[in-house]
């Protein structure tokens, strides 16, 4: 029997990043929330698409360009259909792309709140001496990896640091500072719990 408890965490960010815009109706900088609605303007063979944001205070709109003066023939018909029908998954993909949003507007507000779905892949908590966590992101998040683990496993970040210093905890792929950076899709975390006094408590948490 495997002594590793393997669990997949599917992480769904809750609130899309908000651009900070000088609202001409409010007369000051305000966050704008994503409406998750597209505006599609097809003019002959040219097409423009925007994602619409609204001021949280006055509802004034700001259009974020998604496609600008593109040739309709260069775009997949299924993509045009998804844009025209305000496909929620597509809107979410653009809405949570904080890098593209920041490039467009400069200043944004980000929210680390996530919902975590947990699925046991194999192993049994009562036999586990190691934990393997596969992370899947359904959209980009600003939540840091150490905060995710501390929150979901119910342990302190200083304990995580001790595990990492002793190489009991590893991140794959491992990049400099991955630990204090936003959670990456398809990362795998491995924790060796063989010498851990609170092993029972910790292996109970990942599936809970
Ligand atoms: Zn406003």
Task: Label this structure with key terms.
five-stranded antiparallel β-sheet; 6 helices; five-stranded mixed β-sheet; 208 residues; 10 strands; 2 domains; alpha+beta; binds zinc ion
Provide the list of bound ligands, each named once: zinc ion
Strand content: 35-45%
Residue-averaged pLDDT, rounded? Answer: 92
If strands are numbered along the chain, what order do they take across the biggest sheet? 7-1-8-10-9
User: What Rg is obtained from the alpha carbons, in whole angstroms?
Assistant: 21 Å
Count of the domains: 2
Distance N to C terminus: 22 Å
Structural class computed from helices and strand pairing: alpha+beta
Helix content: 10-25%
Number of helices: 6
Low-confidence stretches: none
C-alpha geometry: elongated
The beta-strand count equals: 10
Description:
The chain folds into 2 domains: 4-14 and 112-204, no CATH class; 18-109, no CATH class. It has helices at residues 77-84, 88-95, 98-105, 145-153, 157-165, 199-204, and strands spanning 4-13, 18-23, 28-43, 46-55, 61-71, 108-109, 114-122, 130-137, 169-172, 188-192. The model has no long low-confidence stretch (mean pLDDT 92). Strands 7-1-8-10-9 form a 5-stranded mixed beta sheet. A 5-stranded antiparallel beta sheet has the order 5-4-3-2-6. It has 208 residues and is of the alpha+beta class. The protein is elongated, with a radius of gyration of 21 Å. The two termini are 22 Å apart. The longest helix is centred in the last third of the chain and has 9 residues, at 145-153. Strand 3 (28-43) and strand 4 form a beta hairpin. Helix content is 23%, strand content 39%. The structure holds zinc ion. Zinc ion is lined by residues 23, 25-26, 30, 55, 57-58, 60.
